[in-house]
Amino acid sequence: MAQTGARGLAVAVIEDGAIVSIRTFGVRNTAGDPLTADTVMYGASLTKAVFGYLAAQLAAEGKLDLDRPIANLLADPLPAYGNLAAYGNWGDLATDERWRSITPRMVLTHSTGFANFAFLEPDKRLRIHFDPGTRYAYSGEGIMLLQFALERGMGLDVEEELQRRFFRPLGMRRTSLRWQTAFAGNLADGWDADGRAEAHDERSRVRAAGSMDTTIADMARMAAFMVRAEGLSSDRRSLFPGGTLPITTRQQFPTLLPDAPEAERPKALAGLGVIAFSGPQGPGWYKGGHNDTTANTLVCLEERRRCVVILANDVRAERAFPRLVRLVLGETGVPYRWEYPDIEDE
Length: 346
Known about the structure:
alpha+beta; Beta-lactamase; eight-stranded antiparallel β-sheet; 14 strands; 18% strand; globular
């Protein structure tokens, strides 16, 4: 924290599928209130990892076919639903029939062909940049497509499914994809790269792409649950992380980068909302979470079911993540230069 200038940091360690340590450091707001294990922090894109595990459970139960087109779940053609503020600009796809081939696995492996979000396109319109399923390009809009299919096509409520399957049974009482007024009493604000403070965003809309609020204690419970492969029968445990799609770009962002030379590609595969890798300690998976004032990471190793979870309410903490993960888990094989190309990982 002294080296990065970060104001708040929370770390949880999991060994053999059980939480063995939860530590918090620094402050949660400009008033100087301490960051605690029950401080609500922004989960950012760690939401995608939890959503990916939900998809794995639905697939294990035979309720969701990961390789069947999402179009088959919907009563009407996707563009007919128009542009929906709560989900995505599906009406923009009316002239491109390739939407018909997009599957849940393509969504979760970020291979829909969408940009990260339509509002980042020069004309603010959603489009498919390459044949779905052929390559990796990070897309939050893609994640929202699967949420739309589950809710509009299958009649599920994603927030309620997550609460029913994970959050309530695990005692994750301060975790939700929708803002809860009860969070306000112990809430983390954030700091950006220039050290400016910003108030916590009260996200009233459930977004599987990244609206989760959580605590380090709660996220540790979820990580332990996932690394134990709970809720997946022994013959279905290969569903998660389910790394299947080779990643061919030099770095993760900006999205839609061209293919890199073979030697410059990460040794990693896109899985169900996470990135799968194999290193000195065998296979593992990880997911990062980031916005202007948030830096999170979750890294799990299958051998001995070990994980580290780091939540920071200061984006500057991100620069220390490779060293912190190495300190806890040793050398892992996480492709840090792909995830954080501007950060020294030595």
